UniProtKB/TrEMBL annotation:
It comes from the Bacteria. This is histidine kinase. Its EC number is 2.7.13.3. The keyword Coiled coil applies. It comes from Pseudodesulfovibrio profundus. It catalyses: ATP + protein L-histidine = ADP + protein N-phospho-L-histidine. GO terms for cellular component: plasma membrane. InterPro entries: ABC_transpt-TYRBP-like, HATPase_C_sf, HATPase_dom, His_kinase_dom, HisK_dim/P_dom, HisK_dim/P_sf, Sig_transdc_His_kin-like_C. The lineage of its organism: Bacteria, Pseudomonadati, Thermodesulfobacteriota, Desulfovibrionia, Desulfovibrionales. The chain crosses the membrane at residues 344-363. It holds the Pfam family HisKA.
Amino acid sequence: MSRHHYLGLILLVFVVSLFVPAKSDGQLVRRVLLLNSYNRDMLWTDSITRGVSDVLSKDSTSYKMYVEHMDTKNYFSPEYLELLKEQYRFKYSDVAFDAVIVSDDNAVNFAVNNRSLFNNAPIVFCGVNDLDFHNTHDMSNMTGVLEFTDIRLTIEAALRLQPDLKRMYVVVDDTTTGMISRKLIQDILPDYRGRLDFAWIDKMSMAEVKKTISNLAKGSAVLLASFNRDGLGNWYTYTESITQLRSVTSVPIYGMWDFYLGRGIVGGMITSGYRHGVMAAEIALDIMNGMKPSDIEVVTQDSNQYMFDYNELESFDINPRLIPKNSVVINKPINLYERYRSQILIAALLVLTMILFIFKLLASNRAKRLVENELEEMNKYQESLIEQRTEELVQRSRELEMANHELKKVDNLKTAVVNTVSHDLRTPLTSVLGFCKIIERDFIKYFVPLCSEYADLGERSERIRKNLGIIESEGERLTRLINDFLDLSKIDAGEIAWNDVSIDTNELFVQALPILEGYFTGTAVKFHMEVDDNLPGVVADPDRLLQVLNNLVGNAAKFTFHGSVNLRVTTTEGGWLKATVSDTGMGIPKEELANIFDKFYQVTQSTINTNIARGSGMGLAISKRIVEHYGGMISAESEHEYGSSFTFTIPTTAK
Ligand code: ADP
């Protein structure tokens, strides 16, 4: 907010204040006079003053309270009353009272008779003993609270608190109040006939009264009606009388006045000066706020209430539960719960929250434990599953091992069978071939000359010779087949003997040349061998190397019908021995090229519709195994119907 704003606000407040009348201008402050009959040292009067003051001071800026004590207990002559009039006229002629509250009979009579002294203000009375007052007086501009001592309800309370109560001792003096009380009690005596006896303690000295009440039997009680003056004329204040009686009594004392309460009486239906003061002040407020006194009914019995002293109940062993409902109990031990109610509630709430929290924690712990248990269960389950699976795997591997073992046994058996069969086949085959040759030789030597004499036999002998030739060539093929089969089986079974030696490769090829050339004798195909000089040496089984050369050159011879076959042997840059057999033969279809190194594989077309003798389909497979055994490689290239080229490399000693 800026400085200008502040100034503006202050100005506004000032202007508004000009139009709002101040309470101090006499219009808004109400003036209330409390005129007490008795002096302020009377407990009763003091209580009334406190009651009025407590109500008016709730809004002390609106009400101004004036208090006067007429002291009529001590002075009550007409002269004195005249003096009072003078005094009040002097003091209050300029004061415009809005209400006058008067306590007790003397003051109300004085005020009614001298209204002009007090600005003719409405009168509100309290503590007036005359229960017929409102019926016998001019009630214009006046109302109030009558003082009604409820002796009956006090006796009822005594009977209730002491179920064994049989005798009531009534302490009463002959003051005005005492006489009124005596009359009231006498009026109700017949109602208790047979139920409760009454005994009067009156006209006795204080000492006699004390002596009497100190010796009372069980089942009795004292009713203190009024005791300001004893039989000897000695005056006692309310406090003095109750204190002395209480100090000696052997039974509970009941009473109807609040000035006895807390000083020795157990309690009763109490007439309270304070309550009278409060009620009168509230009525005065209603009138000042616009109600007419004539519209406000005079209060009679409602001014009283049951009141008890907890200390007295306890000292006479009276059960506090017996007191009537809605009673006011003074000196009640401080109830810790009531005193610290909010703190206790907060603490209880905290404890409750903590308990809830703990329960929640426990619950979540429980849930955690449940989850953990579940996890553990799952773990266990999985572990058992894994164990089971492992067991199964172990079982499987055992089975596989056994199967493998069996297979090996079978394989070994197969090799043994193959070996045996091959051997057993070769022997009779050799015999067959041998005898075939002998038969042919003998046939040519002894029978052919004979047959030449007979034309038809000549023809037949020719057929026999041809058939013998077929037997021979088939026998040889069968031998080759068996040999190849035996070689392959032995290599695969790892049983072949590799008789490796250091080979002078140049010499090897020189030796091989006539054998290789043999494949072409009697054919139109030309064979060329071109071997580089100074080939590096090779460590290998020379028979096996020759076997590879024979197979490759033999195949070339077999599948080439014109042109030439070349064997070219060189050394690669890496120091490998490289041999290539190329021909101008029938070639191999592309799609079959990849399979020709497989066991028993033969290109279909190569044997169909040709006169080529069927091979075994094992030659290239054996060659591949031999080359790879020495760490080399074998490959084929071919162009169908134009020729093929087979190359193998093997490491040399120069590598
Ligand atoms: P085989 O005893 O049948 O010759 P190989 O394993 O030596 O068995 O050869 C397999 C097949 O490869 C042969 O049957 C043939 O079909 C084909 N083959 C091999 N070499 C040649 C070649 N130089 N030209 C054409 N076909 C060939």
